[in-house]
Specification:
With 790 residues, the protein is an alpha/beta fold. It is built from 26 helices and 40 strands. Strands 16-18-19-14-13-21-22-40-34-33 form a ten-stranded mixed sheet, sandwiched between helices. A five-stranded parallel sheet has the order 10-9-8-11-12, sandwiched between helices. The protein has a five-stranded parallel sheet with strand order 37-36-35-38-39, with helices on both faces. The longest helix has 22 residues. GO terms for molecular function: oxidoreductase activity, acting on the aldehyde or oxo group of donors, NAD or NADP as acceptor. It comes from Oncorhynchus mykiss (Rainbow trout). This is Aldehyde dehydrogenase 16 family, member A1.
Length: 790
Amino acid sequence: MTAAWSHGVYTCVLFSIFPQAWLESHSRALGLFIDGKFVRSADRQTCNVTDSSGGPVCSTVCAVDEDASLSVSSGASGFKAWSALPCHLRAKTLLRLVSSLQRHGQCLSELCDLAQSPSSPSALVRLLQYYSGWAQLRDSLIPDWTPRGVVVVVVSDDCSLYSLMLKVLPALAMGNAVVAIPGVGTAPPVLLLAQLFVEAGLPAGVLNVVTGSVLSLGSKVAQNPHVSYVTYSGNKKDGEILCRATAGMGVPVSLSLSLGATCPFIIFESADIDSAVDGVIETAFKKNREWMLCVQESVWDSVVARLKVRMAGMKSVPLLAEGDRRLVDAAVQEAQQQGATLIQPCPPSSSGAAYPPTVLCGVAPSCTCVVTPSPGPLLPLLSFRSHGEGVTLGNHSPHGQAASIWTEDLTLALEAAKSLSVGAVWVNSHSVMDPSLPISGHKESGNCIDGGKEGLFQFLRPSSSPPLPRSSPASVDYSKFGTAASAAIIPEGSNSSSTPRSYLQYVGGKQCKSESGSSVCVLAPGGGTVLAHCPDGGRKDVRNAVEAAIKVQPGWMKKSPVARAQSLFSLAETLELKRRDMAVSLHSQTGLSLEKADMEVELSIAQLCDWAARCDKEKGGVPVRIYVFCHQQSLSTSGGQTSVPQSVVGVVLPDSSPLLSMVSLLAAAVAMGNAVIMVPSPKYPLPALEFIQVLQSSDLPGGVVSIITGGRDQLTQALANHSVIKAIWYWGSMEGCQFLQHTCASPLKSLWLHCQEKDGGRDWAQPHASLQEEMWRQAVQWKSVWIPTA
């Protein structure tokens, strides 16, 4: 492998005027960018990059295993140098790149256009400026957190340069090294940016770019033990494949699935109809975003009439691929068969790679074009009667990326924004972006937060927490995981008088037996003696707990922070009253001395009080932070962000500190407005079962917390396969972690995984501020709301 010619500053100035010159200097055959220079081997296969007319732009190298290994090794060396620099020196390097990007913005823009990956240089400059500031302020504003190490950023072929840099820049700003794996069209501008980074003073190896098949490369690079984190942006199908391919490697993987997601565009009767229709035309057809238009019945005729006028004379839109025409024709035919009528500026040609903008009026919410949008310029149009029905229709989509709502009623706008299960809401506007506010995918739109301060934490870990241990995938039969019967089952009908105490589990605010009617033995420390019998819960018990949770969680979430705090203080007071019984239970179950058991109870009470106190403070009070941004045509937009609960969280508890760990995780989840389904340690379940009396004596609504005992694998499998559960916090085996990574790729869940065999266990008795912050961030999602102010 040989190094390609490295260009000087004067030559790059010429490239800012003539982007073709940069391509010609590489003979239109771009190499990989590893260790601060272009490298290319003659025996590598190549991939052609074409322009919009199908003409050749350049070729890129298809990296192989050797290239992937070199890029990560270079990244590991670069990380040592980059992370050791003071914050102000990292910030100075990024600021130098701001100046370089401003000089060469024209070159970058034209290169993006050539490669069919349009991107705004001014948006990238703003991105760089924002994260340069965070590079400067990391240690002062985010203390007790440290960079992860080598981060892999993967984007699909249809993803933009901005989406890739929205992950690369914060990773660099926090002190990580990055291996970027861009899509075909994004590769040329990313390689140019990598060169500009090095010329701005970025140490060699801190940013490496490898090109080729993104999915194959992503999994190959993730296998390297030096990789600490993998994050992906793009379409859902490729994201699922990558997630499953990396399952069991011991590396966290996050997904931002913005492409292919359907976003609701809701027009209420109180809207400025002309402005709303203008917004529809611009965003649905000119920018090729995937939208469904929801219109209140009272203004349906007005909207349809204006759409017909505005669409008259519009030209057909080029399709991205040859096979797209067949998919578009099939979607239109299905909609018409279900009773939809069409609005088109002209009839579609019998064949060809273009299709006229088309509104499908009166489609059903279950229609394929609504749930799974086609690749062409199709806009489903649905109707609703009341304001509540409009919000329900907006939440019908399995995706939760963004929504646009149109109304002159500010109260209605804020209520609708609060109720929509999406990561961003634009009021009387659309597609407004700024890096200072988070982009959080809800539902099937991702489990990752990009942008804002909140988006930085995916590239950090608590300083008091060691790096996650790496592993190799185990041989796991995913179809049979968790199906084996629990050990030491006591059949229903056994003589209770001759056996130790039998406990009940806690579902929907009531104590009950398991649906199976069976129990398992709970052994004393050292084994041999049976202390008690606890229910052997399973899939039906999880189903019952979820049904109870979804009934009560919306009301619990809407309670004021003060009310949630009072409920947690009530739990703490009740636990204090039962302190002696809990300490004795801990002593008999774990073998701890009574003194240490009493200390664990004391720390559990303190945790409840701590999270109760947080409820009405900054983190628990879910504040809306307001920013004002100025955009084109002097339009000012206020943007606010707020944290919202995950909804229903499944928690598989660790063996260590069985009471303290349960109370800490329960309090963090419940304080933020979640409902939780808790699976106690099979080894030490009694403290959790004794805690049921505390729950029953408190004023916590029944169903907010359920406790189900049984086999860890069986209950983990039931949690993973329930579509309503949005997040799983897991302490268990390496095989369990691998199963969850593979299974929870679809339906997508937020995962917080801990392998007890590898990480040695968390010290629950030492509540470091960063560990508390980590628990809180796992309990919430983020939502941004944009409102024009002028």
